[in-house]
Amino acid sequence: MQNSIQQALYLSFQRQKWSELRKSVPLTLSQEELENLRGMNEKLSLDEVTDIYLPLSRLLNLIVGSKQQRGMIVDKFLEQRASHSPYIISIAGSVAVGKSTTARILQTLLQRWPEHPKVDLVTTDGFLYPLADLKRKGLLQRKGFPESYDMKMLVDFISSVKAGDKHVLAPVYSHVSYDRCHDQHQVIEQPDILILEGLNVLQTGLDSPVDIRRPFVSDFVDFSIYVDAKEHLLKEWYQQRFLQFRKGAFSDPKSFFHHYASLSDEEANSISANIWDTINGPNLQLNIQPTRERANLILQKGPNHLMDKVLLRK
Ligand SMILES: Nc1ncnc2c1ncn2[C@@H]1O[C@H](COP(=O)(O)OP(=O)(O)O)[C@@H](O)[C@H]1O
Ligand SMILES: CC(C)(COP(=O)(O)O)[C@@H](O)C(=O)NCCC(=O)O
């Protein structure tokens, strides 16, 4: 983004300044919360949680609170019973930037606030077309591209959640089978906050033919976050995660990529570099990065996943 455009749109905070904005958020996390956060990612530094994510949870708590108050005012004005429309936060960014880690940290931190104890998390992977459909349509090498997602299903889902429906089902994705789970669903039952995480959540589908255009995910989102990093770091993180998967998910005989489990480090690195250069890299440049400046907040990471800068839309 050009500097002048960035200055026009965003307030910019270097890491130190941002961390001072934690203010009254309690410094300490309970033992259970600490274990929960450590369990989700052993490489996650707790300084990162206190310096970056606690101020962010404080900001989100204030913003959600103002929306809840507005809802109460409208209910009073209309003399109607309290309506229940969850607050929706979306998290976008490249493959391997750390969207799911960020989403899980925010879920843990946001549910500590008494005003919104029920925070659910859904990832858009589940809305990828089933593997058989992707194969039939010749889209196996386009996973993560806009055409690989069932956007109608995703928009219908988020619209039902936002409407306050009591029981909404989300499909679930498995990195082991590389496919939608056919016998498993996530049930969403009127949370206070729903976090929706996926590389496509800021996309508009404006390239689609006019007759299949429909509302965008962002029409239902109250606050959007884009997690950003330079591409050479993203490729490095993707390759590191691929090496971890080789020891973890790929070692499961049921894994779609079980044949990768026996690769040497060198072979694994060459395959993951190729997947990055032919699929995830081009998808980032063509379809994900161009959506960055639609976000209400941009988190800019540097080496080792440490946050360098936070940009907050004015
Ligand atoms: N804050 C963080 N600190 C250290 N490692 C992280 C952090 N966030 C993500 N990672 C690592 O980076 C890789 C990608 O993270 P992940 O959350 O799976 O990304 P995404 O959901 O965007 O694909 C994983 O190996 C994860 O362990
Ligand atoms: C399923 C995904 C599109 C989702 O991405 P993520 O949740 O990792 O951001 C991605 O993990 C993927 O499978 N990309 C296709 C190429 C690859 O195997 O990495």
TrEMBL record:
It catalyses: (R)-pantothenate + ATP = (R)-4'-phosphopantothenate + ADP + H(+). Its EC number is 2.7.1.33. Residues 88-234 form the Phosphoribulokinase/uridine kinase domain. The keyword Chaperone does not apply. It is an enzyme of class 2 (transferase). One of its GO terms (molecular function) is pantothenate kinase activity. ATP binds at residues 93-100. Pathway: Cofactor biosynthesis; coenzyme A biosynthesis; CoA from (R)-pantothenate: step 1/5. Pfam families: PRK. It is found in: Cytoplasm. Gene3D superfamilies: P-loop containing nucleotide triphosphate hydrolases (3.40.50.300). Keywords: ATP-binding, Coenzyme A biosynthesis, Cytoplasm, Kinase, Nucleotide-binding, Transferase. HAMAP family: Pantothen_kinase_1. Belongs to the prokaryotic pantothenate kinase family. This is Pantothenate kinase.
